[in-house]
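[audit] Reproducing an earlier prediction to check determinism. Same input, same settings, fresh worker. If the tokens differ from the archived copy the diff job will pick it up downstream; this log only records the rerun itself.
[audit] input (350 residues):
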Amino acid sequence: MSTDIAQIDIRKLSLAELEEWFVAAGEKKFRAKQVYEWLWQKGAHDFDEMTNLSKALRDQLSTNFVIHAIVEDKVQHSDDGTIKSRYRLHDGHLIEAVLIPVVKDNRFTVCVSSQVGCSLACTFCATGRMKRIRNLDPGEIYDQVLMVGRQAEEKFGYPLTNIVYMGMGEPLLAYNNVLKSIEHITSPQGLHMSPKRITVSTAGIAKMIRKLADDDVKFNLALSLHAANDDKRDEIMPINEQNNLSVLMDSIEYFYQKTKNKISYEYIAFQRFNDSIDDAILLAKLCKRFPVKVNIIEYNPIDNAPFTKADADQIDRFAQFLRDRGVMITVRRSRGKDIDAACGQLANKE
């Protein structure tokens, strides 16, 4: 490996590549592990933080490399404890991450983004109005977990307990970077979080769900379902035209049979669109093939969207109908109603 790799992001290098660089630079090989720990265990964003390295070596690293850390740009605090953060990337683009606290259960979840923008154009989503600009690097995803984790510690005195890849972008269209970020988050050489506390959400890309299964991932899978028949799903989620419900159910069953990991359906309740008992009957049928939990979500409206949130009483009737048929249900009331809480809202302001 050549030492002429000036000013690339050092977090793009594996430990083996770092070791090779240090040896070629005339340094001890173990220095690479020290730097790697600073980057992925301690979350260093500046070489001068690496205090067990000599000043000369820190200067040499600064000459050859950069750390493309995300930078906090704006933070909104909701009365319910939700904290939404907008981050600026090294190239000027904006992304979001959200801290969702459930203090009574000591549960603190970060919702992270995986792309700048999104290409799927779901009609109810603010991010869907942004074109997809690029995938986030693994380090940029990792930084969201790191920085929101610090928010949780500072505000509530607790570490993060859960991570959901449900922010801006489609994680399975940033597949390699998402899996590499999870590797750093779960590795003993990284943040050492359990993969069972991580959920990756997809709008539904069947071949990539099968790839997750073949890659034997350890984290949980969520499908952004939102409608239990193809006509309605086609209307709100264009991705369904190439990945219809029959194909999706086959791929998710394959995932479950190979991994036995937890599966959930995310189901935003829209008034007079997908909240009827007839819709609940169709949804119940989709829940019979393999164990699945349904999260019914109160809609967080966005400007100029064709949908409004379903009535709370109707959501409760819908949920009870499913419970009576043995479906595991959680109703998630909207969080951050007094801030730009819907996915993509805050980033879309610029």
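[audit] rerun output stored. Observation attached for the diff report: The first helix runs from residue 15 to 24.
[audit] end
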